[in-house]
Design goal:
The protein has eight helices and eleven strands. The protein has 293 residues and is an alpha+beta fold. The structure holds succinic acid (SIN) and fe (iii) ion (FE).
């Protein structure tokens, strides 16, 4: 595997403590657009929980089962009663594990971050049909139409819990390069649109210029087939029992195939970074020559 893009972490515990060397390496790697990669950090399921390794527990509409740590509710499953509670407990345990990992690996982030959704992904990725905009087998940086980030960073922790099969990812060019490539074709937003979207509750909060440009990059990347096939990229086969993490708002990524993974999202203000100048917000601001939030 490509060692430029991966920062291998020789860790076997979610809790640490980790050496000062590992801690210093972790945030630097994340901020320079690499993936923290822990091939010996599985997320253990009990024998009983292993029955959830099936798309049958989905509700038929969602592709993921999600858990909101702050609200303590699970969604995306048809399971009820005791089964639902078991699913919730499993997702809650992943949330706790991922939070412990972040605290031990990136203590500077942990105090300032807020958790997003925890998700369990029991559906096979390959062969799913979606619109190009929702197609995560195309390289993209994460940006969501209804959820403005207003400059907040998106940090995600993943674990492959498939008993046998790897999760296949592609990772593309650096954010700086993608931004410089696509930004010139993205028109500035019409100011009244952001107010309307927020007023009509289409967006949760105001869509800033930052969000507008991030969505523009997300869409242009995914829509451009020749970019998808020709841009510099590497393919990763991420084996079972591996945990990895990256800033998915700056690491251009695509999930090609695989089934059964957990993911925990954290949101982080730019000021909590070791070097905020490396954030997509600051990169875009340098390119357009003005503040974007
Ligand atoms: C994505 O964030 O695009 C999907 C990642 C995954 O499910 O492996
Ligand atoms: Fe994504």
């Amino acid at each position: 595997m490509d060692t430029e893009i991966l920062e291998p972490l020789d860790i076997t515990s979610w809790q640490g403590p980790f050496s000062a060397e590992i801690v210093s390496r972790a945030s630097d790697a994340l901020e320079t657009g690499r993936l923290l990669y822990a091939p010996q950090l599985p997320f253990q399921l009990s024998d009983a929980e292993r029955r959830f390794l099936s798309p049958d527990c989905l509700d038929g509409k969602s592709k993921n089962i999600s858990f909101r740590p702050d609200a303590g509710v699970v969604k995306g499953t048809h399971c009820k009663g005791a089964e639902r509670d078991e699913l919730l407990a499993m997702l809650q345990r992943y949330y706790t594990s991922a939070s412990n990992l972040l605290k031990a690996l990136c203590p500077g982030y942990s105090n300032n971050s807020t958790p997003g959704f925890t998700s369990f992904r029991p559906a096979e990725i390959a062969g799913r049909t979606t619109s190009w905009r929702h197609d995560d087998t195309r390289l993209h940086v994460d940006a969501f139409p209804s959820r403005p980030m207003q400059g907040l960073r998106i940090l995600r922790v993943f674990t492959n819990v498939n008993p046998k099969a790897p999760r296949i990812w592609r990772v593309g060019e650096k954010f700086e390069d993608a931004a410089a490539r696509f930004l010139p074709s993205i028109k500035s937003p019409i100011p009244v649109t952001a107010s309307l979207l927020s007023l009509l509750q289409i967006t949760k909060g105001r869509r800033t210029e930052y969000d507008h440009f991030m969505l523009g990059i997300h869409d242009r990347m995914k829509a451009d087939s020749s970019y998808q096939s020709q841009v510099f990229q590497i393919q990763l086969a991420i084996p079972p029992g591996t945990t990895w993490a990256c800033y998915t708002d700056s690491v251009s990524h695509a999930a090609m195939s695989g089934q059964f993974a957990f993911e925990q999202t954290f949101y982080l203000p730019v000021r909590a970074m070791k070097n905020p100048e490396r954030s997509p917000l600051r990169v875009l601001e340098r390119l357009v020559g003005r503040r974007l939030t």
